[in-house]
Amino acid sequence: MEQGKILILKDLELIYPSLYDLFNQNFTVVSEKNFARIALGSSNNSLSFVHPNFKCIILVDEKEIEKEEAPFLNRFEKHIVTFESLINKTYRDMSNDIFLI
Fold first, then answer.
1. pLDDT at residue 55, as a whole number
2. pLDDT, tens digit, for every residue of 75-89?
3. Is the pTM of this model over 0.85?
4. Which of 52, 55, 66, 91 has a CA-to-CA distance to 22 between 20 and 30 Å?
5. What is the distance between the alpha carbons of residues 2 and 51, in angstroms, rounded to a whole number?
6. Longest C-alpha distance within the chain, in Å?
7. Could you state, in order of their start, the residue ranges of all structural domains in the chain?
């Protein structure tokens, strides 16, 4: 997040509560730079720089979405990504033809 890259997280439910300030965009501003509190354990809260270009993507399997807490899910923009939504019909048909061969 300090380098402004995209971070993709999946199946890290034990870590997500430590990142709530980041997910909520609850930043401490120092010299016009954003810092997020990262909770590591019960007594260690460090501030980490959040680059303006930083993006975080949380992947949750559609079958597992019911297990996630509503407040956690409400922190994010949500999209359903399927094979059909990623590849146009012509290429899907082509892949089906190849699979059948």
1. 95
2. 899 998 887 888 888
3. no
4. 66
5. 5
6. 62
7. 6-100
CA dist 87 and 20 (Å) reads 34
Q: What is the dihedral of CA 55, 61, 67, 70, to 10 degrees?
A: 40
Tell me the per-residue pLDDT of 28-56, one tens digit each, with 9 for 90 and over. Answer: 999 999 999 998 776 677 899 999 999 99
Only one residue has tokens 């007594």, namely 43
**Rounded CA separation 57/78 (Å):** 10
Count of positions (residues) in the chain: 101
Nearest to 80, CA basis, from 66, 64, 61: 61
Q: 30: which 2 tokens?
A: 């120092």
